[in-house]
Amino acid sequence: MKSDSWTRRTFLRTMGAAGTFAFGAKARSLERVEAASQSVAGQTAEEVAKDEFYWREVQLGFKLDRSLINLNNGFTAPCPRVVLESVFRYMEMINLLPVHYQAMVAGNSQTIRRRMANEFGCDPEEMALTRGASESLQIAINGIDLEAGDEVITTEQDYPRMLTTWDQRMRREGIKVTRLQFPVPATQDELYRLFEKAITPKTKVFHFCHMTNLTAQLFPVQRLSRLARSKGIVTIVDGAHSLGQFPFKLRDLECDAYGVSLHKWLLAPIGNGCLYVRREMIPRFWPLQAAPEQQDDDIRKFEAIGTHPWAIRAALGEALAYHQAIGAERKAARLRFLTLRWANALKAHPRIKILTDLSEPAQAWAVAAVNIEGIDVRALARFLMDKYRIIAVPLVGGAPPNQVFDYQALRVSPNIYTTLEEIDTFVEAMEDALESGVPDDQTPVPEAMPDNMDS
Ligand SMILES: Cc1ncc(COP(=O)(O)O)c(C=O)c1O
Known about the structure:
By secondary structure, this protein is α/β, with parallel strands linked by helices. The protein has helices at residues 8-18, 29-39, 45-49, 52-59, 81-96, 98-120, 133-143, 160-173, 188-198, 221-230, 250-253, 310-314, 316-326, 328-346, 377-388, 420-436; strands at 69-70, 127-130, 151-155, 176-180, 203-209, 234-238, 257-261, 273-277, 352-354, 368-372, 390-391, 393-396, 408-412.
């Protein structure tokens, strides 16, 4: 079917049939997206990825500052209007009489656990709802029993907060942490062999990203988890950037623990995350905040954190509905389409180096890293902001416990609301930099904060 088959007429017909829509200010973003999705139901995700009329409906679902071009969605993303409105609604409701409504909203979050588990492929009893990937992964990292001399294998390009957490365990308990380095992009085989070769009789844990926050390097999670399990090694996987960006099922990964930031690619309000723990492994992890012994094998033990903003958690339900209204496959295909649009336009230039594997089958979707030979990436980020109002993150390696790497790159991460015009402006800006150079101003751009700014 042709990609232009999604027409204004089909849209009106669908909305009319749904009987819920009136044009104008009252248009509801979730309903619009659902109607748009119904209208393209016969098309492949790749066909819909190119359908600007479809994505226009999605773009309208956000309240944004379009005077800036946000290509740093890897940090956290704006949530759709319908999600934000539900935060306000739940906040107002709870505030009416907190003791009454908070308990009610908290109780109802069991529904969200079930819906999250259904969507992302695990048992609801394996899904804990948290406030972000840092919390999820710190539960796993600090929760596993280790003795002095036991060894953890991770990488130099894992997330700084997680490396810092392992570093603290090393200083406190005398465990050994081996940080592996790898070139980017690396193949799945290279990464597998790297871990395999590093195993010693003392290795107790593998910790690695499903997809790094730097060049979006993808790791072979299932293969590494099988290798680990065959040797009695626990796998803790950092999925901060993965869930919601591209489709997969948690149970297929076969890892033991998997931590996610839902305020990144699921477009949930800031303060949402989840922790998947394989059922048999739940008793092996202690919660970060103490829970009673009777809860040893209950996933809810990881959620016992006292009073916290339940409105934020409740609005996760709406973010999930928005994600489902688009569909995971369509979303991933669009994100990849946007990335390939800028990368294909730039890659032929001899001074352009792309550090993310963009070949088929897909290993990258919304996030990719690019470098211009001969230009400092901090000055490039400053130039993009000053001249074009484009926000993108310069990646520069640090020293332990931070991430260590020897390349420089600009991380570019558009989102489903990004327009083709915004992508093309980025291409134009990069061509301008290639042709005319950039001023040597490396002053950090505050808006271009890397997503490791708190470390
Ligand atoms: C790879 C990775 N892990 C963990 C985190 C921490 O996530 P959060 O800020 O949601 O705690 C991030 C955040 O950017 C990340 O990129």
